[in-house]
Automatic annotation (TrEMBL):
Keywords: Heme, Iron, Membrane, Metal-binding, Monooxygenase, NADP, Oxidoreductase, Transmembrane, Transmembrane helix. This is Cytochrome P450. GO terms for cellular component: membrane. Belongs to the cytochrome P450 family. It comes from Macleaya cordata (Five-seeded plume-poppy).
Length: 526
């Protein structure tokens, strides 16, 4: 009986909230400029049914009807969606200080240690401290250069695994995403913890690493769900989609994993490195933190350390590896572009060694390919949401305090009023002398903002960009690419699966064919 009473009273409360919100909206519209246009909301649930799957595509489809600034009411929450570069710039540049925090959500509560992390920390002291620590010890040019050898070693391991896959008698195709993910996770693992997380990097993954990858994928899928309880808090106790229960279970697994890592690390001591490389890993640096040069307190608790590691491993692996997978899929579909990129690489690097990170600045065409991939396949198509601290006005529309801001990065980068032939993969548009030659992906050109923009722009932009460019360059340079027998390049499935990150609906299965001198791959004795 009790659950029925609770259910009825929850709906009663939700109905009262709905009536109150309707009244409030009318009152707001009387004293303020109007809210932005948007589809008519349903009672109680508001526009939740309008989101559909995948939401970034459905929201983009609303632009011709409502324009580039759309208002939705999701349950009891005001939501505004920015779907053009100029509207995004209004929010993330002109009014960025007002949108510097993230809205409350079940993922932050149940998975990210109840907002004790960096990604969901409210704008303030803890967030600044996390950003400062990461900026100095992980993402500065000095830190990136210090750990360059690790990324180069891990990419070489992946290259060897791909070359070896070509020698096997089974002739089964390789799941490229799997190896790319192992590569990014191990490169990050060695920088953060001083050790690999996924087997040996050559595809012989152990059970633990398989479980870790599954946890990251599950986190992305759960974080991408529009959880009804986030929008109708009175229904939270019902957990209608079962999302909270799954999140709590996942959190327990992550926490056990991270607690073991921290305890093992404390026992092992802080020194890491071999041969000429004697750097301390990031975790050891975190343990040693006390205060910075300005005397500001920078000491982190164990919970904060686990929350930060959780952020870095989840935000920093899948995003980069899936972007490279999309890049390769586009290049396989466009053999002329692939050949042109290989020509550039051969002339800069030659055929007697692998690409090194120091080559990247000379690879203009390769960089254009990476930009074009970020344009068509941004790894977080709806970026990460922000929340309005105060009421404000954008383009003559009223944006109420506590509105959630969604920036449709995916739609902006396909806007036909900004991009010519927007659905075509055309890296030349970014080459010197072309229409978009000066456009970059680092948050100041709002036509293409795969890393977001403003104060909460991606903390790992410098690493993510380097890693994507480096892995793409290596794969293009070291191999020609065949599809499994019977599959035609022009018919390659380019559908998107839905999650917080933009995965391919069907993983890219390939046969890599080495094209450099044999000794380069490390599979033969020189
Ligand atoms: C292809 C690579 C990547 C892409 C496309 C990407 C994209 C993004 C986006 C769109 C945001 C939200 C920005 C906003 O609110 O405006 C974000 C935030 C974040 N990213 Fe990335 N990311 C990538 C790689 C990385 C890497 C390698 C790391 C770290 C190892 C990382 C760590 C973070 C963190 C910590 C935040 C939260 C920042 C904050 O709230 O202050 N990301 N990323």
């Amino acid at each position: 009986m009790a659950p029925l009473v609770l259910l009825i009273s929850s709906f009663f409360i939700a109905t009262l909230i709905y009536i109150f919100l309707n009244l409030r909206t009318r009152l707001l519209n009387r004293h303020h400029p109007p809210l932005p246009p948007g589809p008519k909301p349903w009672p109680i649930i508001g526009n939740l049914p309008h989101l559909g799957l995948p939401p970034h595509q459905n929201l983009a489809a609303m632009v011709p009807t409502y324009g580039p600034l759309i208002y939705l009411r999701l349950g009891s929450v005001h939501v505004v969606v920015a779907c053009s570069a100029s509207v995004a710039a209004q929010f993330l540049k002109t009014h960025d200080a007002n949108f510097a925090s993230r809205p409350p959500n079940s993922g932050a509560k149940h998975i990210a240690y109840n907002y004790k992390d960096l990604v969901f920390a409210p704008y303030g002291h803890r967030w600044r401290m996390f950003r400062k620590i990461c900026a100095v010890h992980l993402f500065s040019v000095k830190a990136l250069d210090e750990f360059r050898y690790i990324r180069e070693e891990e990419v070489a391991v992946m290259t060897k695994a791909l070359a070896l896959s070509n020698n096997t008698s089974t002739n089964s195709p390789v799941n490229l995403a799997g190896l790319l993910n192992v590569c990014t996770t191990n490169a990050l693992g060695r920088v953060l913890l001083g050790r690999r997380l996924c087997g040996d990097g050559e595809g012989h993954a152990d059970l633990k690493s398989q479980q870790f990858k599954e946890m990251v994928v599950e986190l992305m899928v759960l974080s991408g769900v529009f959880n009804i309880s986030d929008f109708i808090p009175s229904l939270e106790w019902l957990d209608l989609q079962g999302v909270a229960a799954k999140m709590k279970k996942l959190h327990k697994r992550f926490d056990a994993f991270l607690t073991t890592i921290i305890e093992e690390h404390k026992m092992k001591g802080s020194d890491y490195g071999s041969g000429t490389h004697q750097q301390q890993d990031f975790l050891s640096k975190l343990f040693g933190l006390k205060e910075d040069v300005d005397g500001e307190e920078l000491k982190l608790t164990d919970t904060e350390i686990k929350a930060l590691l959780l952020n870095l491993f989840t935000a920093g692996t899948d995003t980069s590896s899936s972007t490279v997978e999309w890049a390769l899929a586009e290049l396989i579909r466009h053999p002329k572009i692939l050949a042109q990129a290989q020509q550039e690489l051969d002339s800069v690097v030659g055929k007697d060694r692998l690409v090194s990170e120091s080559d990247l600045s000379q690879l203009t065409f390769l960089q254009a390919i990476v930009k074009e991939t970020f344009r068509l396949h941004p790894s977080t198509p709806l970026s990460l949401p922000r929340i309005a601290d105060e009421d404000c006005e954008i383009n003559g529309y009223f944006i109420p305090k506590k509105s959630t801001l969604i920036v449709n990065v995916w739609a902006i980068a396909r806007d036909p009023s900004i991009w010519s032939d927007p659905l075509r993969f055309q890296p030349e548009r970014f080459l010197p002398g072309s229409e978009k030659a000066h456009i970059d992906v680092k948050g100041s050109d709002f036509e293409i903002i795969p890393f977001g923009a403003g104060r909460r722009i991606c903390a790992g932009l410098s690493l993510g960009l380097r890693m994507v460019q480096f892995m793409t360059a290596t794969l293009v340079h070291a191999f020609n690419w065949d599809l499994p027998e019977g599959q035609l390049a022009e018919k390659l499935n380019m559908e998107e699966a839905y999650g917080l990150t933009l995965q391919r609906a069907s993983p890219l299965m390939v046969h890599p064919k080495p094209r450099l001198a044999a000794h380069v791959y490390g599979t033969t004795k020189t």
